[in-house]
Amino acid sequence: MTLTTVVGVADGAGPLGGESDEALSTRLRDLALVDLDALISSGDSTGLIAAFADDVHDALREARARIVVLRGMLAGADPLNVLDTTVRQRASDAGGTGAARVQARLVVQAEAARALARLADLAGSLAPKLFEADRRRG
Fold first, then answer.
1. Residue 36: alpha-carbon gap to chain centroid
2. Staple partner for 122: which of 18, 28, 93, 130, CB 3.0–4.6 Å?
């Protein structure tokens, strides 16, 4: 018996983000690679630092909004509450449907947790850059 569950949609418009989460992760990763000292060494350092700080602020705000959505996906009823049902209930015909529903919900929660962890990790490494850029631009 093979059970296949498709979660979200390929274009990234679904609740799990897909391509949009990957684009946000790439943006956060790229911004974290920027060397502020290199920006200062250029001619218009004030403008570059300000633009960088604004971009980091916007990316972190977008990450925060996405993290809120992902946290919401983790909330709700515990899918393993089926452990509180009787053996007879789980063994019934409706139990088969329930098993698929529990599995699908756990898959969604696992994917949301992984996406949340990835975004939180990337945002955590980028947040100090915002503080440093704001300090340097005065």
1. 26
2. 28
